[in-house]
Amino acid sequence: MAEAEFNATGVRIERSLRSLTRAGQVKIQDGRLELLTSRGQEIDSAPLDAVHASKPWFAARDRARAKVNGTRYVLTLGGAGEDSAGAAGGTEGAGESTVRRFLDAVRSARAGGAKR
Predict the structure, then answer these.
(1) Quick one: pLDDT band at residue 45, thresholds 50, 70, 90?
(2) Using 50, 70 and 90 to split pLDDT, how confident is the model at 110?
(3) How far apart (Å, rounded) are the C-alpha atoms in residues 114 and 85?
(4) Which residues make Cβ contacts (< 8 Å) with residue 2, sequence separation at least 6?
């Protein structure tokens, strides 16, 4: 069974109106979500079963919310440092497509974990 993979760099990660990093990394690998600083230090991580991700209707197109281990984070996935296949950085729709791919990766990995 293939796991959903996602990797985006250059991500702004915020918690409670406080910026934790402006150039962080979001990774989904082996059934886990990891939030990392620009230096590769772990901010938070959890199995995807303990993660809830959504797109708030009132937020900018390049933003997503993630609740990891009960802690709420705001992720700004601008697409500028994108590692995964997808839209090139610098275009207006890049952040929106990165958010869509992030949400799809979380949902598909959770759905795959529920079937096991």
Answers:
(1) very high
(2) confident
(3) 26
(4) none
What is the DSSP code string of the chain? -PPP-EEEEEEEEEETTEEEEEEEEEEEETTEEEEE-TTS-EEEEEEGGGEEEE--TTS-TTEEEEEETTEEEEEE--STEE-SSSPPTTSTTHHHHHHHHHHHHHHHHHHHHHH-
| b/e burial code for range 75-111 (CB count within 10 A of at least 16 → b) | bbbbbbebebeebeeeeeebbbbbbbbbbebbebbbe
Q: Which domains does the chain have, with CATH numbers?
A: 6-115 (2.30.29.30)
- Amino acid letter, residue 82: E
| C-beta separation of 77 from 93 below 8 A | no
